[in-house]
User: Fold this.
Amino acid sequence: MIRRAAAAAALLACGVAAASELRPARDFLSPELRAQQDDPSRHPGWLWVEEGEALWQRGERSCQSCHGGIATMAGVATRYPAVAPDGALLNLEGRIERCRTQQQGAAAFGYESDALLSLTAAVAQRSRGLPMSVATDGAAAPFVEEGRRFYEARQGQLNLACGQCHDDNAGRRLRGDVISNGLGTGYPAYRLDWNTLGSLHRRLRACSLGVRATQLPLGAPEYLSLELFLAARAAGLPVEAPGLRR
Ligand code: HEC
Ligand code: HEC
Assistant:
């Protein structure tokens, strides 16, 4: 307990709260990781992209049979999470699961399954380099507010809000990581430490654990609203999925 509190104090003591401009996730990567993230032939996440592109075409009622080639997905990831006509907030994973169950009439893939991660990576990759531009007005507005409240709330035994790391201490080191602006624009991402591709919600669970707060389930409504708020914060910054992380 005492060590945790001291760690939090030490972390925050160095926080000269700069009126920080948000910087793309890639700016915080080591030059080596950044180069590897840019190079499909050296990026292990590309195996998931390729698997996702194969899945896209597979079966009688394939994704392709309705949508056409996967190139039609260009720009889609910049608009997610988004509110569906029935009022539900869907991230890209949720949108794909809906097509899976309602359009294909098949059983859901399941969060963090290889199939869902692959399809999400393949779809998101088609927006690589394009600026984030989620809707924040109308039906989306209450979700953005909910996400903002989550982002600004102090949480866990360390009693830290997201921004105390990702705004006040961005660029500083913490347990071997360089703290980024916590945007989420590189997800799903291949993390060397995970030895696999993982969703943004998996990363959010790691941050919840990091401050000793309750880890919410993958796909939890709180994480969905938070994801929308992060995407709104990232407006204008490029999609980097699939990211590569240490
Ligand atoms: C039977 C036709 C059909 C099939 C098969 C289908 N979809 Fe869809 N998909 C749709 C329709 C219709 C929409 C638009 C729904 C809406 O506007 O709310 C949609 C929307 C989407 C979107 C959001 C597009 C946007 O511009 O916001 C994504 C992503 C998507 N589908 C992915 C997939 C994937 C991945 C598969 C295969 C696992 C798939 N779809 C299979 C009909 C289909
Ligand atoms: C104690 C400091 C700390 C707190 C508090 C914290 N995080 Fe993080 N977070 C990190 C570190 C360290 C990483 C890994 C390095 C990086 O990418 O920023 C990280 C990574 C992330 C990433 C992935 C960024 C990327 O591009 O890979 C996101 C998104 C994120 N955090 C969001 C959040 C949110 C939202 C909260 C609040 C619920 C939060 N974090 C709270 C330290 C923190």
Q: What stands out?
A: Confidence is low (pLDDT under 50) at residues 9-20. The beta strands are 82-83, 89-90, 173-174, 177-178, 189-191, 196-198, 243-245.
